[in-house]
Amino acid sequence: MARFAHFLAIDWSGAAGERHRGIALALADANGGPPVLVDRGRAWSRAEVLALLRDDLPRDTLVGLDLGISLPFADCGAFFPGLADTPPDAHRLWALVERICADDPHLGAGSFVDHPAFAPYFRRHGAREGTRFRCDGASHGRGRFRATENAQAAMGCKPYSNFNLVGAAQVGKSSLTGMRMLHRLRDSLPVWPIDPLPPAGSVAVEIYTSLAALEAGRSAGRAKIRSHAELDDALAAFGSPATGGCGPIDDHASDALLAAAWLRHVADRPDRWRPAGLSDDIARTEGWTFGAL
Predict the structure, then answer these.
(1) Residues 99, 141 contacting (CB under 8 angstroms)
(2) CA–CA separation, 257 vs 254, rounded Å?
(3) What pLDDT digit, counting tens, does each position of 144-178 carry?
């Protein structure tokens, strides 16, 4: 019997403000059919996504979150090397971000990246690279990587550091705002592999939508899908029916739809839950991207 009954993919946004066109949710059913967008008639807010995950999640749902669930740790032996009282694991990292950003509206994370203790670890707008953005003076131009980002790169993806706040490749604020949400879900939704995979019930995982695109036969440079025809071709690679749409499609929506179908396609494969690079220490500190092998 399949472990999950539903598959919810969430394309997330760390942008300022309350509502974001960059947030898209898509749901696929284990019994088949095309994935469908979860549409409430207006742009989603992060608080509304939090409420759905806490209060309205269908039973036995695998939730894929397109955000970084933690920060690099293994490369330097700490999230914030050189800082006193740096958190020892991801749960306490989430709690720290929530505490620093408690007064930021809409699950924002501006207070964290502006905080004098943490700002040196980020690459910020205006080409301002913090003095601790690179670990031990490393020359890696994209910043510190978690073990899972190294695995993604080996698969042909082009990941960026969760300490990067610049340009289209910035994933820092998406990750930090997501950590605020995950902290508030601690008692209601486990997050694999930071939390063990429960034998039943719903669970959230980190996803990288480019991995779904690669497995659908697209290249890293063509990971973004902007037409229904392209989307339907990619869905077919996962045995999913077409959506029935035509013409252009927003790439946030296509990312969520393809990722929901991909989650349904691979969720019961044991190798996805046992990647070679995932140790107990990595699990509790850095977490992992589901599907990175």
Answers:
(1) no
(2) 5
(3) 999 999 999 999 888 889 999 986 667 899 999 99
